[in-house]
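Margin note from the TA: students keep mixing up input and output lines. Inputs are the sequences; the output is the structure of the whole complex. Example:
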Amino acid sequence: MEALFNSIAYFIPVGEAEKEIISTFFTEKQLKKGEPFLEEGKVCRHVGFIVKGLMRYYLTQDGEEKTFYFAKENEFVSNYESFVPQVPSLKSIEALEDTTVYVISYDNLNRLYSTMANGERMGRLIIERVFVEALQNLNSFYSDTPEQRYEKLLLAHPDLQQRIPQYYIASCVGVKPQSLSRIRKRLSLH
Amino acid sequence: MEALFNSIAYFIPVGEAEKEIISTFFTEKQLKKGEPFLEEGKVCRHVGFIVKGLMRYYLTQDGEEKTFYFAKENEFVSNYESFVPQVPSLKSIEALEDTTVYVISYDNLNRLYSTMANGERMGRLIIERVFVEALQNLNSFYSDTPEQRYEKLLLAHPDLQQRIPQYYIASCVGVKPQSLSRIRKRLSLH
């Protein structure tokens, strides 16, 4: 659980007492490649912390899957717009590789917030960061060119060529797969 | 400041000590109709609580103003994606009426979080709610019809006909002003 402790220590001091509480509330879960972490129409009941692996966020629009986000090792995974109000999710999240996550349930996360010293502060700081990242990603969809989106994606996932199928990258960048290779060629000329 | 105390009491207990701290950190500000609360390109330095009046959120896209949100009495006003990381804002906020707001600066809000009992908890709960509302509004832009957006806007602002100029309502619904009157006619037939 060291990776999880370290990620939380970015926000608040994590001593032995905090490690004890965190270990109690998070449980390990294995997802096979292709297995869902969250399905559209269901309530998001967990926040996860990815230890190993990769997840894909997507939604279905006019019968077509639109990929809009990836999360990998050392990142939190959840759909907060379903998780926070505990309402059905409009989005899906699935494992793109065999993935190990530490998960915490809604009730246990609320217990963690109130039990742990600086638990509320941690919660505030994490959700602030997730909020800002979500909005930046959404802004980027409507104001960046596909090239810029591809460059940002590459910055977030330097190993994306090896790990993410081209059609998911294309979908997340907002182009057809055949246009993606043109973008990659153009960018490699710089 | 009763309205502000009541809004905060929705999230955490507000006794005399909390009232004292809140009164110290928030200051009253008057905005004339048309005056900016936040300008595109500047860092959002304050969160406000609207006591009286109405604000419009907008962004400029291809030289055109797009209105995407309104906030009124008893609501918080800020652009968190600029405020939280303290980076320049892509969006603007202006008063649509003469407006009274209680404002708190970034530094003082952080002091409030750490000084006040349950301050961090309040911060977490408020940002969670703002986050979910922002995402719901964005989802609605891409999945609702203009009629549905108009109905939701009317639900949030039952007095919008009296207070918000038609072209801002049309922009927020996502149609040309002439289409808005057709939508209004259709809806009044139900």
